[in-house]
Amino acid sequence: MDAMEFYLPIVWAVLIATAVVMYVILDGFDLGIGILFRFTRKEEERDTMINTIAPFWDGNETWLILGGGGLWVAFPQAYAIIMPANYLPVIVMLLALIFRGVSFEFRSVAKPRHGAWDLAFGAGSTVAAFAQGVILGSLIQGITVVDGKFAGGAFDWLTPFSVMCGVGLVLGYALLGATWLVARTEGDIEARARGHARMLLPAVLVFIAVVSLWTPLGFERIQERWFSTPNIYFLWVLPAATLLVAAGAWRWIGQGATVKPFIASIVLFLLCYVGLGISTFPYLVPPSVTVWQAAAVPDSQIFTLIGVLLMLPIILSYTVFVYWTFLRHGKVTVGSEGYH
Question: Pairing mode, if any, of strands 149-150 and 145-146?
Answer without folding.
Answer: antiparallel
